[in-house]
Amino acid sequence: VTAVAPARFDSALEALRTVFGYDAFRGEQAEIIDHVAGGGDAVVLMPTGGGKSLCYQIPALLREGTGIVVSPLIALMHDQVDALVRNGVRAAYLNSSQAPAERADVERRYLAGELDLLYVAPERLNTESTLQLIGRGRIALFAIDEAHCVSQWGHDFRPDYLALSGLAERWPDVPRIALTATATDATHRELTERLSLGGARHFVASFDRPNIQYRIAPKSEVRKQLLDFIRTEGRDADGRPVSGIVYALSRASTERFADFLRQNGVDAVAYHAGLDADVRRRAQERFLREDGVVVVATIAFGMGIDKPDVRFVAHIDLPKSVEGYYQETGRAGRDGLPATTWLAYGLQDVVQQRRMIDESPGDLAFRRRLSAHLDAMLALCETVSCRRQNLLGYFGQPSEPCGNCDTCLVPPASWDGTVASQKLMSTIVRLQRERNQRFGAGQLVDILRGKQTPRVEQHGHDRLATFGIGQDLSDAEWRGVVRQLLAQGLLQSVGEYGVLTLTDASAEVLSGERTVALRKEPDRPVRSSSRRSA
Ligand code: ADP
Ligand code: ZN
């Protein structure tokens, strides 16, 4: 015998106050909830921290039956459900990590109409047995969280999401709401189409996070830079340490940097998926409950973690996409108070990521997609205009310069790098034509600067016509030139050793048809004096 979970509340506001203890809806929450509770389909684009969860949780409480929530973050289901249960919501989940007895109990409660919300992993929802199970109960709505995962061009594609369009065919009368915090125009269109949400109403919130200050700096001595950053940004007005997250690409570097910070008096803990579950949990607990803990983590950290007063997010490696960068930096300042984000990136990041793309197992289309993501990220790093404007523009939202990012606060000078680019490019051409050799940035800079290193002598590079023609720029400036040319697609880095070669566009620079504007490396850091409230 199956039964139907009754509607728990008459009005959305009553549910908001009684269950969640909040006074008022934020942004478009009320409209979204009304629309879905009334049986409409919705596509919701809202930044992290915007309050997406209530947009499906409350309609599920207002409608008869159980809201089915598709979420890819299995690791978080347990916590999400726990939090709901603490608020008196009858919630449970089904995923592959469960023991059979536990699963059977959830199934029984669902069929008995004892659940308001049921979280389901996407791969579960692709099995006929699960579909039949939910078909035997009453479905209040389908919520598809992290809906950008259906986009093959997005940064987080999950094949299991593709089958979710089947829900519309099977249950045409059940309202569906798709939600995501990362949506460019292209992803937005793609998810609408792939999830058969052509008839849905679209709610697009502003992606601006005005209280976040964005800073991006060229990497020189990253340890010292990070420590300087934490020493200036890591304290509140009373001098007490604040909570922050430092993102690194590799597990090993999270541990190295956490050690380094601890040795320098910062209360830092490492976090990555390779650590013991216990160690991880302890790190997370400390971060959540204590003030002033800095977590040095891979991007595995932060998803679903709801800590409103993270005061800074630092990246010591280049994120792979603007979407990822936006999502990770978005974990700062969810309470609306001023927060700072800082990214250090260098030539090595570009070379390393190009190599990872070259070596990735996907097909050509897949590698092109990764490349396009990296290019957009590099363009954000090298922009001479407002970071926020660039970021919002990427998400299809026009805006004015913000006055609260590093390029607004200390406008970078640009300089005519055409001649420098020609010197570098002709060195590459000569090495290739005259010697059939290819080298990475280090050797090229040594040649341009006219350094008599053992490697220069060994190869006789001091006999090249371009030897020593670049003494007007420093090593760091030359590396900046290389990095920016890579970012602009005027050079490419190939293979394991990051040897540099020309691109089709380089020819226009060499022939003088095209000029190259470069960003001057900043010589003074941006300070936090600009902190202002939202
Ligand atoms: P998202 O999923 O969009 O990242 P969440 O749904 O996790 O955001 O909400 C972020 C935080 O904001 C949570 O702590 C949530 O409880 C809180 N929140 C959401 N809506 C409201 C509201 N109307 N009033 C106050 N706090 C809210
Ligand atoms: Zn700006």
TrEMBL record:
It comes from Agromyces agglutinans. It catalyses: Couples ATP hydrolysis with the unwinding of duplex DNA by translocating in the 3'-5' direction. Belongs to the helicase family. RecQ subfamily. Residues 33-201 form the Helicase ATP-binding domain. GO terms for biological process: DNA recombination; DNA repair; DNA replication; SOS response. Keywords: ATP-binding, DNA damage, DNA recombination, DNA repair, DNA-binding, Helicase, Hydrolase, Isomerase, Metal-binding, Nucleotide-binding, Zinc. Residues 222-392 form the Helicase C-terminal domain. Residues 520-534 are annotated as: Disordered. GO terms for cellular component: bacterial nucleoid; cytoplasm; replisome. The keyword Cytoplasm does not apply. Its cofactor is Zn(2+); Mg(2+). The keyword DNA repair applies. This is DNA helicase RecQ. Its EC number is 5.6.2.4. It comes from the Bacteria.
